[in-house]
Fold this protein.
Amino acid sequence: MNQNPEQIARDNIDKQLLLCGWVVQGKKQINLSAGNGVAIREYQTETGPADYILFVDKKPVGVIEAKREDEGLKLTVVEEQSAEYATSKLKYLNNDSLPFVYESTGELTRFTDYRDPKPRSRPLFTFHRPETFQQWLKEEKTLRARLHDTPVLETDGLRDCQITAITNIEKSFRDNRPKALIQMATGSGKTFTAISFIYRLLTFAKAKRILFLVDTKNLGEQAEQEFKRYQPQDDNRLFPELYAVTRLNSSFIPGDSQVYISTIQRLYSILKGTELDEREEEENPNEKKSIVKEPLPVIYNQRTPMEFFDFIVIDECHRSIYNLWKQVLDYFDAFQVGLTATPDNRTFGYFNQNLVCDYGYQKAVEDGVLVPYNVFEVVTKITQQGSKIELGEYIGRREKLTRKQFWNTLDEEVEYNGRQLDDKVVNPNQLRMIIKAVKDQLPVMFPDRLIPATESSSESFEVPKMLIFAKSDSHADDIINIVREEFAEENKFCKKITYRSEEDPKSILQQFRNSYYPRVAVTVDMIATGTDIRPLEVLLFMRDVKSRSYYEQMKGRGTRTCSLEELKATGTPGAKFTKDHFVIIDAIGVEKSQKTDSRPLEKKPGLSLKEVIESVHMGNTDEDMLTTLANRLIRLDKLINEKEKMTFAEKAQGQTINHVVKQLLNAYDPDTLEGIRININQRMPGAAPIEKEAVFKERHEKLIERATQVFNSFELRNYVVDIRKQYDQVIDHVNSDELLNIGWVKDNVVIAEGLVQDFRTWIEDNKSEITALQLFYGQPYQRRELTYKMIKDLVETIKISKPLLAPLNIWRAYAQLEKVNDQPKNELIALVSLIRKISGVDESLTAYDKTVDLNFQQWVFTKQAGTLKFNEEQMKWLRMIKDYIASSFHVEQDDFELDPFNKQGGLGKMWQLFGDSTGDIINELNEVLAA
């Protein structure tokens, strides 16, 4: 009974080998036919007895060097000793060197495959299965050797950042680095990049299975769609026609796929051997404030052994690889690749500082891959300071879940701060003031969306696609109703996209992405991350975010580029320009609130009921947590009615709230625990204290499990959280709100000044090199030689070499610094206007077509001040020439064969109207209008 440390270690190794499918035998009872894999203890070699020799199909293939637990730190030191056994001749056999070598304490295990190039040991969760060795021995090369056979990447159709990521990740694999991190800005093609190197791993390195790991069901569905659409460069078939892709949605993992997509929650449940409700995959687990203190450990799963996957690609890895979830990754013997746009210090640490691609948001904006943003803030008094409702006021109360309202007189004063808005208290005046301010300011932010009045209609405004981030589903409903009222629009104008939407949220998301309606979408967290909505141009934050990486992900919803054609086709037909920026409207102070790189591991005080119940469900079953949950349920029992108590019992397998509470409290009751100890002492009088303690621990764990198993039901947990929400929302109709500040944030001005200065510098540096700029800086008459092609080429040059200095970006920057006259019709006109301003031709920034209009008026006035008088038909032609020059910068006699001139008679008609003066008028207008 009193084993020494060496015997304990070997017992643990024996148990693990048995779980992994090995038959364990002593050296005196050898029977190599007992199974595919046989592990023989103390087998004699020419250098002495090896702790274990592993046989597969009756042939020796590996060795295990066993050490006691306290020698775990020395495992790498004994590699030479285990290698000696592996290269020794075995008794009765004329064997070659054994390729598979382990060093293990029963708690820690390291493994080396000596067939690898530059063999290097790695830590493992346990031992490989015999059938794994059978498969490996059939292959000519190991996986790590096959990684060197990958051909040079074909770069056609790939962005520079994608080429860098794929090239460097493959080098990292060849260098046998177990972990690597790819940082790529949201919208720069992370998933496409990952699928590209996954395809190459399957095709050229002959990888067997690859896991694409996500942390929400939504991300998994999106990844599945991207795999379905992917077509490799060297094959005209789609990815699923070449390799089977399976998205896991149950506890069953088929063995015949090559790519598996799963949430980390589901994989954890599979390894634990428990079922998972799909609804538990909807929420990003990182956003749950209460991370379990002592997570239930992952145990070996024979259906999903640790070598099941060769590679694991972890999407949004900055938020899903810590605390409870890290052990899921530690379980598998696989290369790990992290994908993230927003790494923090923990992320770099976890991936061993092996950053193979560093392509952040700012760099992506500079390259024109993503669009920049400006911040517009709306600050109200109640948002900042909260308010007070006096005793005796007649106020409304509302059940959050049912939205049922009732009215009564306050019997105590209610004072609330800004953080309690839309939770404990709803102030419709505050919500309305924000929405009204946004509505009024959108035309200021997007002046090009104003549709001028006509004889049959008044001036109107096409609202750009806008996403509003709400605090909760209840908050989202309030926002939707007020948006529809203030914008005077119908139901389809503004929709909710959350997991609790009555309509199919995927269908609404598809409409938001591709159709005119809805113009405005309100979400809580369903599309806060990882959802591609290219035509989105406005993000309105009406909830705060404390996690820096989560906030960056939320901002990433607006960063996607969108061509003018795509913008028009996907729901904004009134757009005049390519999407080249988006606007963040900060109505809550999210830009200024303090952000942290990560959430604390444990929130001790002030946990919500949802956080407590989810924490217990996920394994935090210490005494404080169970006592806290019991107290919350006691309070709930006093609050709810009999019908609601019966519903609780139905969802709790017939148990009442009181019964559940008693079991929770009983799990750590001193008398109960003492009774267990007494019973153990009576039944095991001669056992060692350590053995009695192990039995006590096992019985105590079963007691806790019985007390908490009722919360495995998603239905019950959801019901408890929802029923509690019903009772605690005050509606403040009493206090009106007022605007304290509205406008672009000061940081925007600094950015705008920098952009304008960068643009000036670029123009100055290139004015002697580029023909169009030479003409601007020459004599006034030289500007008449400017052509449409020159300006178009200049725009393309700027956009390719300096995407941030695109003309419309600089125009908006000027608009934040000084008054500008009108809006340019297109980016060519914007560029000419900007250069005229910078080169000193114009004192203020004025749309070039307006300058042409003014110059034309002065020219006609001067001409007609003397004896020359133009008739109505001549004036019609002169205006056509003026409009042509305004948009094409120059007119030649050959142009009269084009629209609009050719439809009016072309150059012949011009000669008929102006005679010998035709050439002079064309030259004069070219010069005067460009002056």
Residues 598-605 have pLDDT under 50 and may be disordered. The chain has 34 helices and 29 strands.
